[in-house]
Amino acid sequence: MRILLITILASLLLAAQTPGNAKNGRKLFENYGCYQCHGREAQGGLGTGPRLGPKPIAFTAVQRYVRQPTGQMPPYTAKVVSDQDLADIYAFLQSAKQPPAVKDIPLLNN
Amino acid sequence: MSSSKKASVGRRNFLKGTAGGAAALLAASHRAPAQSVEPVRSASAAVATQEHDPSPVVETLTADRPGADFMLDVLKAIGFDYVFANPGSSFRGLHESVVNYGGNKSPEFITCCHEESSVAMAHGYSKIEGKPVCVFAHGTVGLQHASMAVYNAYVDRAPVFMVIGNTVDAATRRPGVEWAHSVQDAGVLVRDFTKWDDMPVSLQHFAESAVRAYKIAMTPPTMPVLLVADGDLQETPVRPGEHLHIPKITLASPPQGDSGAVAETARLLVAAENPVIIADRCARTPAGLKLLVDLAETLQAPVINQYGRMNFPSAHRLNQTERARTLISNADVILGLEVWDFWGTVNNFRDQLQRTSRPITKAGAKFISISATDLNTKSNYQDFQRLPDLDLSMAADAEATLPALIEACKRLLTVDRKNAFEDRAKKLAEAQHEARGRMLTEASYAWDASPISTARLAMEVWAQVKEKDWSLVSNNAWPQRLWTFDKHYQYIGGAGGAGVGYGAPAALGAAIANKKYGRLSVSIQNDGDLMYAPGVLWTSAHHGIPLLSVMHNNRAYHQEVMHLQRMANRHQRGINTAEIGTTIKNPNIDYAAMARSMGVHGEGPITDPNDLGPALKRALDVVSNGEPALVDVVTQPR
Fold first, then answer.
1. CATH of the domain at B135
2. A interface toward B at CB cutoff 8 Å?
3. Higher model confidence: residue B107 or residue B35?
4. Which of A17, B219, B391, B408 is most exposed by smallest CB count within 10 Å?
5. Which pLDDT score is estimated for B55?
């Protein structure tokens, strides 16, 4: 059991360390339909999916949820989205721009 | 009520009187050359003419008072402001009476391009005005077109009054098309999703059934009704001296909850530590909004708006819609007011391969429902939702029950409970303030993105309309969160049956209702929905209806994109093909050009968020002059 846990942890850490390509990640985010629920900028969609970026949650958590979602999200198994694809998508999420502060957006202060 | 002596020979009686000569006439017709222009009558034709039109009696060809005039008297007495219709021969008598006998005023004929639009417009109108307009349609092809919109109105518990043309008497139908446009039982097509229908066989019968239909439609639960206007009845003159009576129109008082159940509900609510009020189609009239505020403030209880109607002011400190899940999870008493899906409100359902559900509420939480829907449930269409485990259920109109419930709650208030309520109110106000901050932060993400974010779109529109007397005549999530709603006409809820093609015509119908009050009607219009019924653009231009339509153009039937994606993921294949058959691209539709082609001011497509404000301002200038305008905005999916 202990060996199994160490193996899983090691693989997760390895995956977490896989360098991602943000440019390809954006493309995959569109092609694989992530944008449908989470918005094209990963900003989230009302009633469909939460904001994913910028500052996404840890890669391992993303990976775990994507493979075996516990909520409404449809599963993205390794058969259709490789770990490298996920790493690229994660890099895109990390690269998402931080928006201006609410106080600096006049239309949000009306 | 005047009519000439000529009018005493009705179309039906006239034809009956000449039936003896019909066979000879038919035989003669068949023997005659089809294209003959022979000025001298043939012998057989002469015989036929003699039998059909015996000298010296002159055939009566005109009528001073057709039955349709009386039918219109009935519709006027009921008080319809408009008739929404696409023209149809089966109600040509009524149509002519409206425009000539009635002077095309009260009701005014509004030309629609599709019967589904006529009914959806009536649906939208009723939610602003609180009463139906009249819809005319063919009893066959027109009603078939209209049926989906009738279903939407039925599920949404909205009153629509339909009059459909039909010719029952086979002996009087014109050969050819009129047979295809006739039906034994017209109402059966929509009987599963209308509240009542009838097929009057006399003018007096029409009068009584029309008044009865209106009363039934307007008694909660309000729903569509249908009346057949027989073609012969429309066109046959009123008999001289015929005494016709339009019954007095007295609407039924809406049903209130049983006094014992009301008292028990009050006891539970006042004693509760964490009560939650959930309102869906609660505010049936302007009074409903005020009553719900009164109940919430009496209890200092949070209100969750499910947006079936304009139930509760959005900025009120007790509006806790953003915190729905948390509050429902912690509630000890939940009061549902005309909640369409109570079960779905208190359970979590997962749409995975194995569909699962679990309660999200605390054990022992009490569920109370007040709903008029319980008074009229039908079998075939399954819009009644899963059965919740209710502790108290009142088959009654929620709005009509609120005054008694408020009084019952007030009678139970003690100093201790009032103090507890005040503590609760402070916490709720703080929580609402924090939730508002989170909403604004969420709205800021992708603020400068292209395609334009739906939050940005909502706030660009808000900036232009907020100082005016506005009415949002569409169903959109970001305005619900960010705009300040406090008047009953500022929001009209959704389609009901989720049948696509409701949005554009319902917005126009609501705008027609708003016009006489000088309100600015604004619709954030889905692209796929508009393509079901683009003819409403022409109707809006033709009749000069001020309506600002701002396209939420995500170039897709987006709900279906997500459904297809779910299937592909579940089957672990083709996860990049979800746009096949679900998107509206290649070519992209130029909605602004489409609007302009029908006489509506059109701008766009707008992809840069910085261009949006000025375009909206220009469009609003047009709308302020009493005309419709459309701004096409290419948006994020949701």
1. 3.40.50.970
2. 31-33, 35-37, 39-41, 43-48, 51, 69, 71-72, 74-77, 79-81, 99-102, 105, 107-108, 110
3. B107
4. A17
5. 61
Mean pLDDT of chain B: 92
pLDDT band, very low/low/confident/very high, at B96 (cuts 50, 70, 90): very high
Output the pLDDT for position A110: 75
Same domain flag for B264 and B231: no
CA distance A13 to chain B (A): 25
Residues 6+ away with beta carbon under 8 Å from A12: A60, A63
Domain ranges in chain A?
A: 21-99
Tell me which of A79, A108, A109 to substitute to probe the interface with B (most B C-beta atoms closer than 10 Å).
A108
The verdict on B17 and B73 lying in the same domain is no
- Domain residue limits at B623: 445-634
Write the DSSP symbol of residue B100.
Answer: I
A106, exposed or middle or buried, with CB in 10 Å at 0-12, 13-18, 19+?
exposed
Statement to judge: residues B72 and B45 lie in one domain: no
Say yes or no: B144 and B222 in one domain.
Answer: yes
- Predicted confidence band at B23 (pLDDT cuts at 50, 70, 90)? very low
B385 located within any domain:
yes
Would you state the CATH architecture of domain A21-99?
Answer: Orthogonal Bundle (1.10)
Q: What is the CATH number of the domain that holds B289?
A: 3.40.50.1220
Per the CB < 8 Å rule, is B636 touching A71?
Answer: no
Report the distance separating Cα B598 and Cα B113, nearest Å: 12
Closest-CA residue to B139 (of B179, B96, B186): B186
Q: What are phi and psi of B280, to 5 degrees?
A: -115, -80
Residues B330 and B228 in one domain: no
Structural domains counted in chain B: 4
Determine, yes or no, domain membership for B164. Answer: yes
Name the domain boundary from B174, B202, B235.
B235
Q: Are residues B608 and B477 in the same domain?
A: yes
Q: Which two tokens stand for residue B158?
A: 């909205």
- Helix, strand, or coil (residue B80): coil
- Same domain assignment for residues B154 and B293: no
Pairwise CA distance, residues A64 & B513, whole Å: 52
The model's pLDDT over B508-545, given as tens digits with 9 standing for 90+, comes to: 999 999 999 999 999 999 999 999 999 999 999 999 99
Can you list the alpha helix ranges (DSSP code H) found in B445-502?
Answer: 454-465, 477-482
Would you say residue B245 lies in a domain? no
* Statement to judge: residues B411 and B456 lie in one domain: no
Higher pLDDT, B555 or B36: B555
Neighbours of B599 (CB within 10 A): 15
Q: Which of B250, B255, B161, B253 is nearest to B213 (CA)?
A: B161
| Entry pTM | 0.91
Query: B562 vs A59, B69, B228, B471, CA distance in Å?
Result: 24, 52, 42, 30
The backbone region for B586, taken as left when phi is positive above 0, alpha when psi lies in -120 to 50, beta otherwise, is: left
